Amino acid sequence: MTRTPRSLDGLVFVPVADQAPGQVGRLTRFEYHERDGLVWADYQGGDVVKGHLIGTRAADTVDFRYVQLRLDGTTASGRCTSLVTELPDGRLRMEESWTWESQEGSGTSTVEQPPA
């Protein structure tokens, strides 16, 4: 039996590595909320002026769509599936597989709660 990691509500996540320019990077901060299977977050920092995501969670999987405004004034959107896991020190991590919908490209990334 798989244990569902705790709620994402009120948690902050940061990428563990930079992506390509114009994308989420180590300076980006995500503020998550979760209620009754609904997940949403606001994010900003680095090359992202403002971003929003919204989706659903079933057990340890989060599926969402995202949209963001970049420093260069362009917008971008896509979809992502994240696997939520708990690190040995109790922080949460999300292993993400994403695909742009507004442009070509896809990839993987990791975000996790910053150390206290």
Provide a compact summary of the structure.
The chain is mostly beta strands and 116 residues long.
What does this structure look like?
The chain is mostly beta strands and 116 residues long. It has one domain: Beta Barrel (Lipocalin), CATH 2.40.128.30. The protein is built from no helices and eight strands. It has strands spanning 12-15, 29-35, 38-45, 48-58, 61-70, 75-86, 92-100, 106-112. It has an eight-stranded antiparallel barrel. It is globular. This is N-acetylglutamate synthase. Residues 99-116 have a biased composition (Polar residues). It comes from Streptomyces yangpuensis. Residues 97-116 are annotated as: Disordered.
Salient structural properties:
116 residues, mainly beta, Lipocalin, eight-stranded antiparallel beta barrel, 59% strand, globular
Note the beta-strand portion: over 45%
Number of DSSP E strands: 8
Structural class: mainly beta
Q: How far is the N terminus from the C terminus?
A: 30 Å
Spatial shape: globular
Mean of pLDDT: 92
Q: Helical residue percent? A: under 10%
**CATH first level:** Mainly Beta
What is the CATH-assigned architecture?
Answer: Beta Barrel
Low-confidence stretches: none
CATH superfamily: Avidin-like
Tally the structural domains. Answer: 1
CATH fold assignment: Lipocalin
| Order of adjacent strands in the largest pleated sheet | 1-2-3-4-5-6-7-8
How many whole angstroms does the radius of gyration measure?
13 Å
Biggest sheet statistics: 8 strands, antiparallel, barrel
Helical region count?
0
